[in-house]
Design a protein that fits this description.
With 117 residues, the protein is an all-alpha fold. The protein has helices at 5-15, 20-27, 30-33, 47-61, 75-91, 94-97, 102-109. The model has no long low-confidence stretch (mean pLDDT 89).
Length: 117
């Protein structure tokens, strides 16, 4: 069953615990670039890193995370972010225990810093 948009927005606001500046700074670090699956193109960028750039743009447009101020075009990506974070947080305790693990770095690319949770 597909979650309604309001639930996606609530869960996105809950799970994405980094602000746009924190996430943008993280995405510039070498550790960020190496965490996750590479995209199937020549850029070498990971899927999570690309997602992080999209999250930064969403947060810059709505820095106070007002549920009524997200663009309709943001919802599909927010849905992916929620699904990714929930799935990985349920499967991997290592991200919470080891901030240097690939799991923790990958979650940060998706806007969730497990050390803040």
């Amino acid at each position: 069953m597909v979650k309604d948009d309001q639930t996606v927005i609530e869960e996105f606001n809950e799970l994405v615990n980094m602000d746009s500046d924190e996430l943008e700074t993280w995405l510039k670090e070498e550790d960020s670039a190496g965490a996750g699956w590479k995209k199937a193109d020549e850029t070498g960028e990971t899927i999570g890193h690309e997602s992080g750039r999209m999250i930064v743009e969403i947060l810059k447009r709505n820095p106070i995370r007002d549920p009524g101020k997200y663009d309709e075009e943001d919802i599909p990506h927010m849905r992916k972010v929620v699904a990714y974070c929930k799935r990985h947080l349920a499967q991997e305790d290592k991200a919470k225990q080891d901030p240097n693990s690939k799991s923790a770095k990958s979650l940060k690319n998706w806007g969730h810093n497990p050390q803040k949770a």
